Structure formats: C-alpha cells, structure tokens
Amino acid sequence: MTDYQDVEFWRSRITDVPQEGPGKPDNGFEKVDEAYKRITNFHIRPEDKVLDAGCGVGRFSDWFQDYVGFDFVPEFVESAKELHPDKTFLVADFNKTLPFKDKEFDWVISVSSYQYCETNELRRVAKHVLVMNYSNPEEYEILGDIYGRKSYALESDSPNYLDNGNMQETIDFLCEHITPDDTFIDIGAHIGCVFIEVMDRCKPKMGYAFEPTVETFKQLKKNCKRNLHTPYEVVNKALMDYTGEVDFYEASWGSPSNTTVDRFEGRIKPKKFPCVDLNSYKIDGKLVIKLDAELAEQKIWKGMSRHIPNIKAMTMEWFNMAMVETNLERVEFLKQIRKDGFGIYSIDNRRKAISDDDLLSSGKLDLILLPCNS
Prior knowledge:
alpha/beta, Rossmann fold, 2 domains, 8-stranded mixed sheet, 11 helices, elongated
C-alpha cells in the first residue's frame, strides 16, 4: 500500500510532476484544472492572500496575486521556484506547526493533500479552508466564514449545487418570513444548501427536509449533522399526493434532473421509490415552504391541501418549458394556486405580480407565493 505521507514516494515522482499543469501538452490536467479554477474564482477574491497547502510544483500559483505555496518535498519546492520565480514557496509539513501567524491568510487551498493532513493547523493560519477533491474535481467543501456571511461545511459533488441560480435570493426571502414559532419545509432539499442556512439563520421551531435520491440524501444527512443544532427531520422519500411507492426516474447525469415525471422518452427505466403526502404530517402553526421538486409540484400541492391555510410564504420552481414537453396541466395548476388564495411573484421582482399569460409563455422561473391577504 502506498504511504502518501512518505516523502520518498513523492520524491520518486519528481521527473513527472513538473510536466503537470495548465498549458502542458497531453497531461490530462486541463479539465481538472478548469474545475478547480471555477471553484476558486467563485469563492476567492483577487485581493485575498492565499496559502497553497501541498503545492507540488505550484500549478495554481499564477491564479492568485498574493500567493504562498508550501510542500514537504524539497525537490517539489525547488521546481516550483524555477517554474514560478515571482511567487513564494517554502518547505513545510502540514502535520507539524506551520511557520505562519494565526489567520495570516484569507484562504488555504488544498487539493488531494487534505486527506493526509491535520486541518487544525490549516484552520489556525487562515480564515477559510477550501478543500478540493483530486478524484472528483467537482467535489469540495469550505471550512470557515465567508466575508461576514457564514458558510457551512457542505459535502457536494458539484460546485453548481452550492450556488444554483437564485439560491441566495431564495434563502434571503425565506429568512425574511420565518420566525422561531414557524416550521420550515424544504421539498427537494438536495444536499441542504438552502435548508441548512435557513435553519441556522432563522432557528424555526422545526424543519423538514425531503430528498428522495439515496446518494444525495446521504450527503444531505451528513451536511445537516455537521452544521445544525436545531430540531429538524430529514426524510428520504418523494413527496406526492399519496403515501406508498412512486415511479422515480433517476438521471445518471445528475440528481437535479431526477423526477417522478417521465421526461426522458424511454431512456431511463423508473425505480420504485417510497413516497408520502404532506397531509400525513401533523404540523401545528404557520409554515414556510421551499418547493423545488422537478415537475412534481402539482401533485405535492394536492397532497398538502390540509396545510394550505397555514402557509405564510413559499418559493417554488416553475419549469414551464418542461411542463409543456410532458403535457402537465399547467392551467389547472395555476387556477388551483389562485383559488387557494395566493399571489404569484418572481423572485427577481417581488413587487410585481406575474400574470398567468406570462407564466404560460415562460421558460423557467423561480417564484414567490404569498397569501393575498398578507
């Protein structure tokens, strides 16, 4: 078994490693680096001071203005200095005390090295630690707070899930309406990006997160356990208008496409998933709901009819284009929403109500639903 903490193992690779990095022909790293750069660009500001833990030959050094890299293999550090003479590199071991002051850096970045190191020392020297996965470049987590806004240790298989469309606007809207006496329900919670921040910021008396996909649910459960200290329940079932089993279409290209509606023209065989209706839950008091269930919204609405009078605010995805493709009853659904007493607004323009004509001619919108008497 390879001992990745053995300097001799890495020293034996010194003839190969300098060829790794952006711009090198046929090295296989271009797509990997694209993913890493997309992640770092999203989180790290140009003026931030960055420490690269386990920097190797400095592959990422040119991405940052204020950069320091360290590695425990002296030959790597020497190569890094030759390849990037304008940057600072030194020999150090992240399993020992690092030669830096407390919070000297804005960010530590670490690729693959993380699984072999102690994070306490990295957390000591930086405000935030960005850990990226070598075997799955789209997977990463952040430790620390970001620019006055708390961040959370979220395990994810894609950075897109951590900033998807109007996610922050949705979170802020939900938080404006939730009080400690309310219950928050996240339908289509995915890995918990919205659920965890809303629960942590608002601390409602109870929260429910529904996520039917097994692997995604595992991440959701782990993320909630890491980050939440208020009462909540995570449910590995699809929400529908009945309790039992439902045909569930699980897309191989990503869980945000998973759905109880056959929109795949026979390319995907459905599996039987457990399902439940919200009416079967006894929930007292006012509710705030996020509903993002990939075309199952209409059936979920029918299955929560008992709770409709207690909803004080809701966000909902309106995927009109896909609803047309799958012949869903869009007009009837809108009639029911209006009949139940809700005004419909766009998350982008909360002051202006959206007409049914605009909804029926749209592509995809993130909506706000508010009781007309609110």
